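[agent] plan:
  1. take the single chain provided in the ticket
  2. run structure prediction with default settings
  3. attach structure tokens to the ticket
  4. add a short note for the reviewer (M.T.)
[agent] executing step 1
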Amino acid sequence: MESDEPPDDAMEAATADLLHLGFLEIRSLTVPPPEAEPATALTRRRERASMIADICHQLPGLLAPQRRHQLADGLRYQWRTASATKREWLRSRWDHLNYDHRWLTEAAITERTTTGKHDRIDRPPV
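[agent] step 2 finished; step 3 output follows
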């Protein structure tokens, strides 16, 4: 654990809670819409559900007992490779959970200016 990272148990709990919120939101986005809802709204709902699923799909693997030691690296990779929309979703859900994500979100700004294109920091954890 790097000095700026939160304790492992806090990081694991926040990741599990993030998954929970993601699943709930996907469920709410995929319920049958009212018949009066325009097709464009349905398309937006599907796109948002897909975006959330894309964010969440690797998180269970990072919580696996044999990979938990790589959780911080996995979250860093996910943050660095996320679009602005995905970052906003992550940030808003962590804020909702009262999770202090500055170790990740603020550190990424510094890393982007100090890390080369092919440095280890730009690769997903193995």
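[agent] step 4 note for reviewer: The mean pLDDT is 86.
[agent] ticket updated
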